[in-house]
TrEMBL record:
Transmembrane segments: 92-112, 124-143, 164-184, 196-217
Organism: Paenimyroides tangerinum
Name used for this protein in its record: Uncharacterized protein
Keyword terms, alphabetized: Membrane, Transmembrane, Transmembrane helix
Superkingdom in the source lineage: Bacteria
Length: 235
């Protein structure tokens, strides 16, 4: 049976890069798929050339080529981590964690109600500080990823997803979150009675998100990236 040469396999890697597949793990998967498809075609007709067989296989990916596959894989990873995030947050509203959530809610509400404008100011300050810490940690994390990519000369699909997982909350904290918080406060920084309930709920959800992100999502991303690097380091 006619087999691909190492030179032809290298050409497949170049071909995937040329068609906008920048992630090495996806390149490996595509090269493996294309190589098997080409060799299967040669088994039927050994006279087919490498180039024409490759182009025939590439056409099967449709008008968007490999781009659709890459986007599909990115979306699948996003869904996986978003589901992990929200499932963990939802667990704080089921027994037994809901007891802790309720205690936290009433504690925050009690503090805000008793301290008035001072407590409200501290609440806003806590949100701003958490945003700044998250933002700088995100920049540090992304810089570390870029540094590793430059060192290895390779990038992984999961790394791009990790960067987006950091950027989405940053955009949220910087935009939607602060516009919502602004509505809680009147000109004299006094929150209405109804506003205290909303502010309390917002604070609790905000810090639950931070807690889950740093205790579950980020460690999972870091672990998965390391496993991916280890899996492909000999390829």
């Amino acid at each position: 049976m006619k087999k691909l040469t190492q030179e032809q396999i290298d050409q497949l890697f170049v071909f995937t890069k040329k068609h906008y597949v920048e992630f090495y793990d996806v390149q490996v998967e595509l090269v493996d798929h294309l190589a098997n498809a080409i060799e299967a075609a040669w088994e039927v007709n050994p006279n087919l050339s490498f180039d024409e067989t490759l182009q025939a296989e590439f056409k099967k990916f449709g008008i968007f080529g490999f781009t659709g596959l890459v986007e599909q894989k990115q979306n699948e990873l996003h869904k996986h981590y978003n589901k992990m995030l929200w499932n963990e947050i939802k667990s704080f509203f089921t027994i037994p964690k809901i007891v802790l959530t309720a205690l936290l809610f009433f504690l925050v509400y009690y503090i805000l109600e008793k301290t008035g404008a001072i407590g409200e100011t501290f609440a806003l300050a806590a949100l701003i500080i958490s945003f700044i810490v998250f933002m700088f940690d995100g920049f540090r994390f992304i810089f570390k990823i870029k540094k590793e990519q430059k060192k290895q000369g390779k990038s992984w699909l999961l790394q791009s997803v990790a960067q987006q997982m950091f950027s989405i909350p940053t955009i949220g904290f910087g935009g939607v979150y602060f516009s919502m918080i602004g509505r809680f406060f009147e000109e004299n920084l006094a929150v209405s009675n109804a506003g205290i309930y909303f502010l309390t709920a917002f604070l609790v959800m905000h810090f639950l998100f931070i807690f889950v992100f740093y205790n579950l999502i980020k460690p999972s991303l870091v672990k998965s990236i390391k496993e991916t690097e280890k899996r492909y380091q000999t390829i």
